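hiii so um. not sure if this is the right channel but i have a protein structure encoded as tokens and i wanna go backwards to a sequence. like what aa goes where. can anyone help
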């Protein structure tokens, strides 16, 4: 029988497919891999951890501002003068836009009016997944842009919500409301009350990979806090009408500018503060820089003869004159280094104090004011608010100039009495005339309904209005009777300021304008200020036309605009005529 061997006795024990060999090779591979990871870990955490962390953040973590909704600016009835509408921010993901950056930059720059090279740089930004391309783009424009990008098969551009500031009435109250730049307020209430209106932006931070959010990675959101609304005392309809009237007057008289102010006689609330020229708050860059503020607060001028009613009220309150006091008015009054004349040529006139006001006599006013010393005159005029800011919350307000008693010479005291050698802004003068309308009590003007705090930390608004008695109620009434004679058909200089059916008390003003060299430039500021109904005042209106290119005075130029605005205010608020007869106080003796 042949001998046979066992199969496994003829083969080596360490053959290639044995478990021992496979185990040794596996352990070797694991050791190599672990060594690689160890080296990488040492590099990341030991050698330069910050640079790699920053690189990861730059590439994968997106930080995006969530804009707060800005508060609305409202008129007294809650109608929006400024609000926010839907808008979009345009965002690029450079990781996806870099390959077609030139083509994208061309389309974006054309559609959004952007700088091509700046846009191209953003589209190619290295180590970035998020770049702002444009801010506050109207929603309709953003949708149109996305459609064009889709048709061109260009990717990597997206949008997010971002409110846009809108001024629905265009130029109505733009001189007060102001306007916004791309990222900051630039004028008016938008700037003065920015903290009140702006709220606080939120933030979204998330990890992105290949253009999508990574679900389980970092993802945090801080919600925005919307701003508060600002309610003003302005009546939008009356503001619109006042702007229309003053703009027409500036055009008709070929004037440099004009202002109209409407005040509630009882509360001091400003219902309209109109400037001409003004601007469209939606397109401020299309207007001259000089037109972007509020002339009613920022420009100062000599008030002219409107000032005489303040002097007259002071004299009556001090017991020096009454409306019937007799004054002999010479043809010319020689004082100090130059004579004082009236606006009209005359001989010796026998006027009452009411006649001095009705005929706007400089000479008669100076003779009457001789009974007040400098300190007393200054005390009364500062009591009326001259030389003091109104502090209603308008940035850049000019306080005007009222010389102190120490600065006041005999010469400029005379001229201050009839409205020269001092300066005011239009709202200051409105509040001063309104003091007579309000029975001798000055109520501080306000533009904010209720209360609000400016960015300078000043609390303003109707809740903070102050009341200060300047002259007695009797003195205010006596002055009103004199002012009524100004609009009288027979004896007054401003019959065109009448409002049919109503008793009107007012005063004209004609003042030389100061030029850039500090001297009078040959032009004039013509004004009319008054209130109605005269015997139960509801509104005070003050109109100023600066540098008209026609002959005339405050009655013929400012009077008609005053009449139109006052008539609209009385009608708009349903104020009935009192039905009483106007003053017939004698003007001569």
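sure thing!! here u go:
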């Amino acid at each position: 029988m042949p001998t046979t061997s066992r199969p496994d006795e003829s083969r080596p024990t360490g053959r290639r497919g044995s478990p021992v060999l496979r185990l040794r090779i596996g352990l070797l591979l694991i050791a190599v891999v672990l060594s690689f990871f160890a080296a990488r870990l040492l590099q990341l955490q030991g050698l330069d951890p910050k640079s790699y962390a920053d690189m990861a953040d730059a590439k994968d973590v997106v930080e995006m501002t969530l804009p707060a909704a800005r508060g609305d600016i409202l008129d007294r009835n809650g109608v929006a003068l400024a609000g926010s509408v839907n808008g979009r921010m345009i965002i690029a993901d450079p990781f996806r836009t870099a390959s077609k950056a030139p083509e994208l930059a061309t389309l974006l720059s054309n559609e959004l009016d952007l700088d091509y090279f700046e846009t191209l740089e953003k589209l190619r930004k290295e180590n970035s997944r998020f770049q702002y391309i444009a801010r506050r783009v109207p929603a309709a424009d953003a949708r149109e842009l996305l459609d064009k990008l889709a048709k061109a098969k260009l990717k990597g551009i997206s949008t997010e919500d971002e409110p846009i500031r809108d001024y629905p009435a265009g130029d109505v109250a733009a001189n007060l409301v102001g306007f916004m730049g791309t990222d900051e307020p630039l004028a008016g209430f938008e700037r003065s009350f920015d903290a009140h209106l702006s709220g606080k932006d939120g933030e979204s931070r998330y990890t992105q990979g290949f253009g999508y959010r990574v679900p389980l990675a970092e993802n945090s959101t801080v919600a925005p806090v919307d701003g508060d609304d600002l309610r003003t005392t302005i009546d939008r309809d009356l503001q619109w009408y006042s702007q229309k009237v003053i703009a027409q007057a500036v055009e008709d008289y070929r004037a440099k500018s004009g202002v109209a102010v409407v005040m509630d006689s009882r509360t001091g609330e400003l219902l309209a503060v109109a400037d001409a020229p003004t601007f469209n708050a939606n397109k401020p860059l299309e207007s001259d820089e000089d037109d972007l503020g509020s002339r009613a607060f920022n420009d100062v001028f000599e008030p002219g003869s409107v000032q005489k009613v303040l002097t007259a009220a002071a004299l009556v309150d001090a017991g020096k004159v009454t409306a019937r006091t007799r004054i002999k008015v010479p043809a010319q009054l020689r004082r100090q280094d130059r004579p004082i004349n009236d606006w009209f040529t005359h001989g010796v006139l026998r006027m009452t104090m009411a006649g001095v006001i009705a005929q706007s006599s400089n000479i008669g006013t100076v003779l009457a004011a001789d009974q007040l010393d400098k300190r007393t005159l200054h005390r009364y005029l500062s009591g009326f608010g001259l030389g003091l800011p109104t502090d209603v919350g308008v940035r850049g307000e000019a306080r005007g100039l009222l010389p102190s008693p120490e600065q006041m010479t005999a010469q400029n005291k005379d001229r201050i009495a009839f409205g020269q050698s001092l300066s005011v802004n239009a709202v200051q003068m409105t509040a001063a005339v309104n003091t007579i309308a309000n029975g001798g009590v000055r109520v501080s003007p306000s533009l904010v309904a209720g209360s609000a705090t400016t960015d300078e930390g000043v609390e303003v608004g109707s809740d903070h209005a102050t009341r200060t008695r300047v002259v007695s109620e009797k003195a205010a009434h006596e002055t009103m009777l004199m002012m009524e004679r100004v609009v009288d058909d027979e004896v007054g200089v401003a019959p065109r300021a009448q409002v049919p059916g109503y008793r009107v008390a007012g005063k004209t003003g004609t003042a030389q304008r100061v030029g850039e060299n500090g001297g009078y430039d040959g032009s004039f500021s013509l004004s009319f200020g008054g209130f109605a109904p005269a015997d139960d005042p509801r509104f005070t209106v003050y109109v100023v036309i600066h540098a008209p290119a026609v002959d005339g005075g405050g009655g013929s130029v400012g009077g008609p605009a005053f009449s139109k605005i006052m008539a609209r205010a009385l009608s708009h608020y349903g104020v009935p005529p009192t039905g009483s007869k106007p003053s017939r106080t004698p003007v001569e003796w």
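oh and Confidence is low (pLDDT under 50) at residues 1-14, 52-58.
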